[in-house]
Amino acid sequence: xxxxxxxIQQRRSIRKxxxxxxxxxxxxxxxxxxxxxxxxxxxxxWRFIVVTDPEERAKLRRICWDQAFIEQAPVVFVCCxxxxxxxxxxxxxxxxEFIDYGxxxxxxxxxxxxxxxxxxxxxxxxxxSVFVAPAVANTYIAIEHMVLTATALGLGSCWVGALxxxxxxxxxxxxxxxxxxxxxxxxxxxxxxxxxxxxxSLSEILLRPLxxxxx
Length: 215
Ligand SMILES: Cc1cc2nc3c(=O)[nH]c(=O)nc-3n(C[C@H](O)[C@H](O)[C@H](O)COP(=O)(O)O)c2cc1C
Prior knowledge:
- The chain is an alpha+beta fold.
- It has helices at about 5-10, 25-35, 55-65, 70, 90-100, 115-120, 130-150, 170-175, 200-205, and strands at about 45-50, 75-80, 155, 180-190.
- The protein has a four-stranded antiparallel sheet with strand order 1-2-4-3.
- Flavin mononucleotide binds near residues 12, 67, 160 and 183.
């Protein structure tokens, strides 16, 4: 198995897969990598459907802009964010963790006031759609854990964000609207590893030159 650094260096988006199944152990390992991902307030909104059935893969391919590699991959993870993870009961459960670990004692400003916090936690749920952005952001972290784990196991994958019309995948798998499909991740043995795709330079992504802060 590769180290994290090696997996980051060697990962590519793979769009051609061998006709070779991925073992149950590897699927377990990829899902475990997702399960262990960090999330804001530890809400863990990620949910998955593991797809191996050729007919379901073909349907997913058609929905996702007819991208052939989705059908070709022996296993496809449909990655969802559960908005229920942000609901009132879940909020109460998670806040207990902060209390147990003494985090609330170090809070300052209004959040230091127990009455303010209690009132905040009693507030009714707003429309759950306001939680889409954080739910998606946190699920993305889990998906990249899966991508890097697949690479470390010698597998290839490709993020798919082209998910067809809104709700189409929900209909395919009979999912409620509170489950937002975030990405589809086909995984399999790569036919070949393509050369690295271009990246912008370090100086372009640094908003302040490194030399100004590090000797
Ligand atoms: C959120 C997201 C959505 C993407 N959606 C697609 C997609 O629908 N189809 C596809 O072929 N590649 C998709 N990609 C892969 C990117 O095109 C790819 O990561 C990028 O070109 C860099 O290439 P590399 O991954 O090999 O480094 C997606 C990547 C991300 C992160």
